[in-house]
Structures are given as C-alpha cells and as structure tokens.
Amino acid sequence: MASQESKKAGKAAVVGAGLTGMLVAHGLKKNGFDVVIFESEEKVDARPRDWTIAIHWALPTFNNLLPEAVRANLVKALCNPRVDFTPEVECLPCFNGVTGELMLKSPMPGSRRVSRQLLRQVLSEGLDVQWDKRLVDISSTAEHVTLTFADNATVQADFVLGADGASSTVRSLLFNRDPKANLVPSAYYIATVIMRHDDAAKVEPVHNFHPVATIMMGASCFVGTGTMYAPTPDLSTWSIFWAKIFRRGAFPDPPARQGAEALRYVKETTKDLIEPFQSQIDWAKEDDSTMCFIDQMKYYTPSLGFDTHGGRVTLVGDAAHPMLPYRGQGFQHAVLDAHLFIEALQKGEGLEAYNTEMVERGAKAVAQSLQEAELSVDLEGVMKSLMARQGFKRTA
Ligand SMILES: Cc1cc2nc3c(=O)[nH]c(=O)nc-3n(C[C@H](O)[C@H](O)[C@H](O)COP(=O)(O)OP(=O)(O)OC[C@H]3O[C@@H](n4cnc5c(N)ncnc54)[C@H](O)[C@@H]3O)c2cc1C
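Structure tokens predicted for Monooxygenase:
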C-alpha cells in the first residue's frame, strides 16, 4: 500500500526503462512519489547491443537522484573500473587523424565512462518495472491520465513521463501523431563495434593510449576506441569498443545494419587510419566475439505546443531531444531533465516552466550536435568546434 507521503506526492507512470526512465524513477521514488515504469522490451537484457556513455558535468546531479544502495553499485557499470581516476585518466585525448599528433586533451574532471547495458542493470534494482508493456495510447480526464498498452491493459496515473527514447510514442501522441514530431535523418552514419580479441597484445595498444577512451578527428571521419569491459586484471579478457562516424555518401551505403556483413563493410571501408584505430578494426574477428551495428544517425529538434493533458504529461531524455552523440551530451541532458522535472513536481507549480526550459535547452543541444558533426571531418573545422574550444563542458 502506498504511504501517506507517496499518496500526497502522487502516482507517476514512466514510459520506457532506458537509463533516463530508470534514473527519473529513482529520483521520484526518493522524493516520495509512487512510481511505476512501463517498458516494451521483455527483460532488461533483451537486446544485446551496448555502447559507452561518459557522464561528466551531470555526474553530481545523477548521483543525487539515486538512493545510496544503487550509488554503491555504480562501480559495476564502469567500462574500466581497474584504473586510478587521476586527472590523466579523467580526460579524453583527441588525435589528429592525418598526422597522428595529439591535438587536444579535453579535461573531464570527475567523469566516468559506463556501459549502457551494465548501468541499466544497476539502475533496475529496487524499481517497479512492468516489462513487455508497449504503450500505444494516452487519454485523460479531469481526475487522471490513462495509459493504454498493446495488450489492451490500461493504467491510470497522476503524471506521465515519456522516457521512451528517440522514436518516442509518447512524443508522437502528444503531437497528435503529426509527422513534425518524427525523427529527422542526419547526413551521418555511425558504426559501433565491440570486440574481444582474446589476446592481451591486441588490447595493449589501446590501453597504452588511454585506459578508458581515445578519439581521432579531422581525417574525413570521427573514430573513437577504448575499453568496453574489463572483467579481470588480465587484458586478454577485456573487450574493446570502436566507433566510427562518417558522412553519408562518403562510401557506398551499408549493405547490412548489423552482424558479419556489416562488420565486413566497416572493415572494407576503413583504411589507413592512424594507430591504434586502424589495427583494432582490422583485428576484429568475424565471429560471435564481435558485435557490429550501423545506423544512420537521427535527431529531433524539440518544440513546444504539444498536448500536456492539463500539465500532467511531458518528455525527458532522448524522447524529448534525441541528438547526435558528439561531445557526449545526450544522456547528460537527460539527467538534467530528470532533476528539473522532479523539482517542478515538488514545487507544485505545474510543468510549463519545465517544458519551456527543457525545449529551449534541448533544441540548442541538438543544434550544437549537428554543428559538431559538420566540423569534425576536416582539421580546419575541428579547431572551430566546441570540442576544441570547450571540451566536454555543458554548453546548452
Ligand atoms: C554511440 C553512442 C554514444 C553515446 N555517448 C554518450 C556520452 O558519452 N554521453 C552522453 O551523455 N550521452 C551519450 N549518448 C547518448 C545516450 O546514450 C542517450 O542519450 C541515452 O542512452 C538515452 O536514454 P533514454 O533512456 O532516454 O532512451 P533509450 O535508451 O532509447 O530508452 C528508451 C526505452 O523506452 C522503451 N520504449 C520505446 N517505446 C516504448 C513504448 N511505446 N512503450 C514502452 N516502452 C517503450 C525502449 O524499449 C527503451 O528501453 C550516446 C549515444 C550513442 C548512440
């Protein structure tokens, strides 16, 4: 039964158990709300895909939203928990993709790079997540908001938060299915590869460059590599991540979006990169020890004018402002959304101010991510980029 405090605070329904949905649910729970998450996937690890996420300027806010028991487990989500986090480690070296020289070293004091999958598992502890519940409709009366799911079940809540990712159903419904709420394809593809070499000598070159992550820019593509998983001290057990962002049209379109054919395409279209970036992809094995995905990156510029069902439904995270992953800002803005949304509910002054700030900030961050993509492909552009001028700081 709900406590007096949670009854007073209200019942919140969160749609989507990605990182944003789970984080906001912890924050709501911590602040006395009765909260349930509805997630379309069947279980937390239903999809094997993973990538790394650096949390930097939003880390203090992120920590504040979590209960102590979950915070204590965050070490389990780190890509490389086996390093001393000194200033040398809490930075991202960026190499000139043409000459191989170190171009920039962006300080990221206090930052941590996590695996999305591992963090999702850590965050799922202590939450009421209803799996296999795909939201299909939202309606409301003066008393409450009703969610309808694909299995025809309905649930009522006082507040509903769309945390259902870039292709958000909640966003589409709030804009009355207007195509203007749809994702827009960018001019860029991203290929993400996670590989296990089973050979310490092949992990060492990456580890020696930086134990967490390194990037190169300015040679017509953006490439990053680093530690994905470090399960034991023995480097031969580690997995490496490798990601490349390239302009559509620079190569023939990918023949497949995942698997061995996608990996072969990435290998065939990646030549003459500086080290350690080239060897890593050359060494990726075409078997189950490698995972490869290719996507055309998409974005959506948030705008106001959506139906908030009387100030009771809104959006957070990628559902609100999906952006390109340049300078690692997407999840950090989701963290800020979560904090500001909870603060707005606590103040009891409605969600208008939250929506206005979130839309303005999100639109700026999306525009900056597109601009960074344009500037990342040649050396002249790189030096004008926010990455070169501001590093990973918050700029929206
Ligand atoms: C390669 C890459 C690198 C990145 N690096 C960084 C970084 O360094 N720093 C950073 O801050 N950000 C980074 N990002 C961005 C970050 O990953 C995202 O902003 C973040 O993961 C978004 O989480 P989310 O929970 O909002 O969305 P999602 O992870 O998409 O979660 C949405 C959830 O909603 C569920 N769902 C969808 N539709 C429905 C429905 N109708 N009903 C019920 N459930 C539904 C989905 O199944 C999913 O589980 C990166 C992104 C990529 C791709």
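The pocket of flavin-adenine dinucleotide is lined by residues 15-21, 38-41, 51, 53-54, 116, 134-135, 163-166, 169, 192, 243, 317-319, 325, 328-332, 334 (CB under 6 Å).
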